[in-house]
Design goal:
Length: about 350
């Protein structure tokens, strides 16, 4: 049976958090803390319960009213459950349908961290009435990256993991140490430094940086529970690079990174990643997720350098299934997707123009 949680009920939220953090398919983007970061979205949580009332599956849904079109429901990296248990998946769908009626939503969009090769999951969701869009290749095509690099940490010590890095990655990591790069954990005040470097990175790599207030909100929601750190790299006292890893359940995710245009030759980014990986090992985590890369593996692609950097840590290239969705109002959703694509194109053009000014 399914239940829609009352998020003001302390016991219900406590039970949900314990389930989420203890489940092998835990993902920080399904957490209430991460939902609080997304201030423009309404949070709803559906759970599937066994006969004794224990949670056996969950789906955190973000709901937002889109101008003209109405309410959209979105799920980032859910569900959290045995993804081959059809009864649980049906419970979660039934709960989602109830929420859709409440908001008169035009669509439920999910981007689960289920690999494309998982034919059994695809078969189940299609039998339940979902549709699957699995043809995107680039960052701009979906909300979450469909292609990621994941480093399996299970059963390996630090020496073994380091020895399995690409030779150039090991060399650059050692070089950073030899050149005197130091990695320190940053404070909330250090977010201002990180953000300035992020703006510098965005101008160099052609992306629009989020505002400082977003990172401060992340810090306030995630750090108290031990779910986020800011790691900064310094050389001769100067901050030159930084990353934000997220820790939840049995995994660590490399979520954001920023690097200055100066002193790139001392290779701070390699030492930052190795520091974060070592901390994940110390925490007993099973996976270090480097997050997104482009699905176009071509040396001439503008994002190929990012692909090569992450691959150098001996991480596995993973392709997720893509978007799994329920169009409650198919025509409205079709129009929304067209408008969304147009908006992203215009925003990209404006971003490039602004960064050239």
């Amino acid at each position: 049976m399914y239940k829609i949680l009352d998020l003001k009920d302390e016991k219900q939220t406590k039970d949900f958090k314990e389930f989420l953090e203890g489940h092998p398919r835990c993902n920080f983007q399904q957490s209430l803390e991460w939902g609080n970061v997304k201030t423009f979205w309404i949070k709803e949580v559906v759970v599937s319960c066994s006969d004794d009332g224990k949670i056996r599956g969950s789906l955190t849904i973000w709901v937002r009213k889109m101008p003209i079109f109405g309410y959209m429901m979105y799920v980032a990296r859910g569900p959290v459950c045995d993804i081959h248990d059809k009864a649980v998946l049906k419970d979660l769908k039934d709960g989602s349908d109830e929420i859709a009626k409440k908001y008169k939503a035009f669509v439920l969009r999910m981007e689960p961290d289920v690999e494309k090769e998982d034919k059994e999951y695809r078969k189940i969701v299609e039998e339940l009435g979902y549709k699957v869009k699995d043809d995107s290749k680039d960052f701009k095509d979906e909300i979450q990256p469909r292609f990621v690099f994941q480093l399996d940490l299970r059963g390996k010590d630090k020496d073994t993991i380091f020895s399995e890095f690409h030779q150039k990655t090991r060399y650059n990591t050692r070089l950073a140490t030899k050149k005197g790069v130091e990695v320190k954990e940053g404070t909330r005040d250090d977010l201002k430094i990180f953000h300035n470097i992020m703006i510098e990175t965005g101008k160099r790599d052609d992306f629009l940086a989020r505002p400082l207030s977003y990172f401060e909100k992340m810090y306030d929601e995630l750090v108290p529970g031990g779910h986020m750190k800011l790691l900064m790299a310094y050389h001769e006292g100067q901050p030159i690079s930084g990353i934000i890893p997220i820790m939840y359940g049995n995994k660590t995710w490399y979520l954001y990174g920023a690097s200055s245009n100066s002193k790139r030759n001392v290779m701070p980014n390699y030492l930052l990643q190795w520091t974060s990986i070592q901390e994940a090992i110390d925490a007993g985590h099973e996976m270090y997720d480097f997050r997104g890369v482009s699905g176009v593996v071509d040396e001439n692609h503008p994002q190929y350098g990012l692909y090569r950097f992450k691959k150098g840590f001996n991480a596995r290239f993973v392709e997720f299934i893509g978007e799994v969705y329920l169009p409650y109002k198919p025509f409205v959703y079709k129009m929304y997707k067209f408008a969304e694509k147009t908006f992203r194109t215009i925003r990209g053009i404006k971003s490039r123009l602004n960064q050239k000014v």
